[in-house]
User: Fold this.
Amino acid sequence: MHRGKQKNGAVRMRRLRLRALPRAALLLCAALLAALHMSAAAAAPTEYQVKAVFLYNFSRFVDWPAGSFSAPNEPFVIGVLGADPFGERLDEAVRGEQVDQHPLIVRRFSDVAQIGDCRILFIDSSEDARLGQILAALDHHSVLTVSDVDGASERGVMIQLATQDNRVRLRINVASARAAGLTISSNLLRLAQIVRSADGS
Assistant:
């Protein structure tokens, strides 16, 4: 029975991925919005299934600096710092996927000093009190920071996943991403509210 549930979960996540990833750039906005809409229907994805698909998609629509990878097949690491709200949902979202030749993998961290060559870092709300310290430790590192902490984008997190009216909405701090050498796709920016840090940067 457990194996059947795992299989059903993997199939469901695969469908979410297919809906979230367009076949052509012109379909990006519509595909993401379709995948990320959370209705009250019984078959609707959970909040963290939706957020897992978002993290997966960020690997496709953000460019890292040339030379970020030391080898052509080095893993593309999506990390979770602090408590893990995803369970297996994030692992299911990236299973069997790759960016160029880089296989996507998920790692969990209890301290920012552990992250190493992480490319995308989800900072859980359990780290809210340490958010400033975490961002300072990542300064000038090419790590895409993502969080659903309230006000995270104004505090310097690059992408905030804000849930409003049963939808996950993007709040993007472009200046923070640019300072880390990251380029966010204009297609993704069209879906987002662009914000500035509290200090005006």
Q: What stands out?
A: The CA atoms of residues 128 and 149 lie 7 Å apart. Residues 2-20 form the longest helix (19 residues).
